Amino acid sequence: MSVNANLKWEPPVRPEYEVPLEARPAAAHGAGMPAAGVVAPVSPLQRLAQAGWLRKSILLLVIAALWEAMARWTDNDLLLPGFVQTAKALVEGTVSGELPGYIGVSLAVLLQGYLAGVAGAFLLTTLAISTRVGRDLLETLTAMFNPLPAIALLPVALLWFGLGKGSLIFVLMHSVMWPLALNTYAGFRSVPDTLRMAGRNYGLGNVRMVTQILIPAALPAILSGLKIGWAFAWRTLIAAELVFGTTSGKGGLGWYIFQSRNELFTDKVFAGLAAVILIGLLFENIVFQQVERLTVRRWGMQR
Amino acid sequence: MNVLPFQVVQNEPLLKARGVTIDYQSDRGTVRATHDVSFEVWRGDRFVLLGPSGCGKSTLLKAVGGFIAPRAGSLQLDGKPILKPGPDRIVVFQEFDQLPPWKTVKQNVMFPLLAGGTPKKEAEARAMDWLAKVGLAPFADAYPHTLSGGMKARVAIARALAMQPEILLMDEPFAALDALTRRRMQEELHALWEENPFTMLFVTHSIEEALVVGNRILLLSPHPGRVRAEINSHQFGLHSAGGAEFQATASRIHKLLFGEGAAHVEETLPAGRVVQS
Predict the structure, then answer these.
(1) At the top level of CATH, which class does the domain B42-88+167-265 belong to?
(2) In a domain, A25, yes or no
(3) Inter-chain residue contact B100 with A216, CB threshold 8 Å
(4) Interface contact B65, partner A, CB < 8 A
(5) Dihedral angle over CA of B140, B146, B148, B151, nearest 10
(6) I need a surface site. Which of A29, A297, B233, B258 has the fewest CB within 10 A?
(7) Which sequence spans correspond to the domains of chain B?
(8) Residues 109-138 of B with CB under 8 A from A
(9) Is residue B23 within 8 Å of B48, Cβ to Cβ?
(10) A208 touching B, CB under 8 A?
(11) A257 is in which domain, residue-wise?
(12) What is the pLDDT of residues B223-245, one digit of tens each?
């Protein structure tokens, strides 16, 4: 037994044994889930701590309190109106119908520009996945135009389309199209080979390959592109409205902010900014999160 | 749809590979994957392509699937040349992402049926029938990401068999599973075949799996893939693993593949031979 001289202790040979398997504990039986094995349920306190909205709301409240304290300490309405004052201006503007009117104008333009950008991006990516020239075109164009701020094109747009909705839609389209095309294309390229082969195996044609395999498989990337595009469009629009104000007599949110500053209603400026943020949050949390919850998260493609 | 194998007994091989040579492009130039490979698969066969990595067995299977065109030689299914992928040759892949994650288990099985123009009602009935056969009927509405690896493999097999293909192509379908699950899947595959015989081309690098799953084994040697031998294994099942005859055949295959007493030579060889650059 002294094969291994370095071994100081020889482990003893212990008796073998078998244990008859009992029925599983009652908790694991329920709900028909195999091997659920939940021994202790999550306590209500843990559940509250896990709720993201609660943590974020507390954080927002703290920020608002800090802001209000800062404003009271500065005590200068013209430079820094407080949270309460801004909220009041926001509510008053909303009730009087002034703010919703501006928001309506902005959103209408935004939506048109956004949709135009989405259409352009899908056209470009369709070209890119079907032909080599299209791929080169997409890669070159995105490399050129993605870093170019949309607002820098505004002077040119004004020359071409005049002072109106046309030039706004043009810059919006520019701000949405490139990041979305880039994301969609990257999404298409990262579709697993196995999935493509499976599609070809079932004899799917080109169109059905795109609609039934490529688009759903690339959906996480497409959605993130749509989200980035949305944020870019929003910023571009507000900035553009700040620069040249009204479009055919009707102003948007940017114009409202600009005009309020001219009239030294700083609380209204803040209310306008708050409106921009609120609408952004609303879309992010309601529209995009719902879509994600119903699709990519449900499918386990994203956590 | 096509008739079940065995209902029409044809005294003709179903799949004929004649002198198949396949090249592929790599960064280093053209690499030969298989060289002059010929074999015949008959209806009802569980035909196994066995060999170490680099013997071109998966490439050969993809060529039969119609995904790769051979450089020389011919591949014929039922007398017709194989030119492109088609639903008469359904592939079960090794990777778990062969199941679209946005479709439930049932929708996954129905997907190729619907793509082939089967009416929805019939596709659904067939899908449920095959899901019951692989024991997954209770999970029909689950999404693939909630399933274990073995269950995903079962869905892929149910999906393939629901299509009733002329030949089922399996590309190391159990290689990504743990050893215990793999054994169980081999057992279940065998039970499915007993119940409802189909023709199968099965790729593996495990000698034991080849003996257990197949009734005939084509041995391929690597770099490039060439035919080394063709061996019968219809006498073996899961019960015979470990038996004297089983062991003898396994070591015979081992010797054929690696040579006498040279178990690990293949690892020292280059990854592939460049024939043109």
Answers:
(1) alpha beta
(2) no
(3) yes
(4) yes
(5) 10
(6) A29
(7) 42-88+167-265, 98-164
(8) 111-112, 115-116, 138
(9) no
(10) yes
(11) 77-294
(12) 888 888 888 887 777 777 777 88
